[in-house]
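Ticket #4471: structure export looks truncated?
Reporter: QA, pipeline team
Priority: medium

Steps to reproduce: submit the single chain below to the structure queue and open the exported record.
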Amino acid sequence: MRVMEKEKLLGMTLDELKAVATEVGLPSFAAKQMAEWIYGKHVRSIDEMTNLSLKGRSALAEHYEIGCVPPCDIQQSIDGTAKYLFPTESGQRVECVFIPDGDRATLCVSSQVGCRMGCRFCMTGRQGFGGNLSVTDILNQVYSVPGSELLTNIVFMGQGEPLDNLDAVLKATQLLTDANGWAWSPKRITVSTVGIRKGVERFLNESDCHLAISLHNPFHEERLAMMPAEKANDTRELLELLSKQDWSHQRRLSFEYIVFGGLNDSERHAKELVRLLSPIECRVNLIRFHEIPDTPYKGASEEKMIWLRDYLTKHGVTTTIRASRGQDIFAACGLLHAKSKTEIMKQ
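Actual output as written to the record:
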């Protein structure tokens, strides 16, 4: 006999929790109590919701559960970065990365199992696409990661293309910033994308979180050779859209730029970046390339990274070099692949 799977409360809005309360015979105000237990106190079981009646808790637990699941594997870097492997509702696995840095702690979360954008230089993209994460799957990375109470920032830069799973990502960020959710400021959350135009447009209309565009090349044909998503999402059209936005207030726009030796680090590329980006209020984050097997790409030298940073900054585009973290445990940019430590050691 098949046991019916319980619905997950983690990922529900206040209105959805009100519907649950009505369904199980609890008063409507119990929804706010449940939200406080889940998003405020991070309980792991319905039994811990002690201001609900025993009968109410019993009725709730019959059909529902919190939905939090601990990581099934951890890898610790020598630089303090930690990578966690989480099971998903679909029976697959996904990674997130905890990055401590002084009084800051950033969690890099995933939005999909694998990715279908197919970027040539990304290990996640080469893994293929395994499906979208549910809102519960996304939030469980925040809820269940060890040290979650220390988090100061969240970036959607893990596995997957966030705007390819936009409904779930928008709902997750809504709950992270809602007064009846985590109540975080949107300024603490950044969502990254390869530049899906329709998704960017909707994101700008429906979210106040920061936006990061994975650019990596300012020329259409060259970017297309590296990033197949460029075919349906021409960067030139995206930049036109972004140039019409007001970036002078709370929301921040940044461009991620992995620097490849001899490929996108020339003066020609630098000049085009200045031409495209200087009219827009933004910053550029230069990222070191971490080589993966069977690709023709090589990382740029440190001297070239510094030269490109200084050139762009001098010409009006604020630019920084992002510190590389967790490379020894395959936790750095483009290296997530949802394999456990044991599986990696067997390779």
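Status: closed, not a bug. The export was complete when the record was re-opened. Leaving a note from the reviewer for reference: The chain is about 35% helix and 20% strand.
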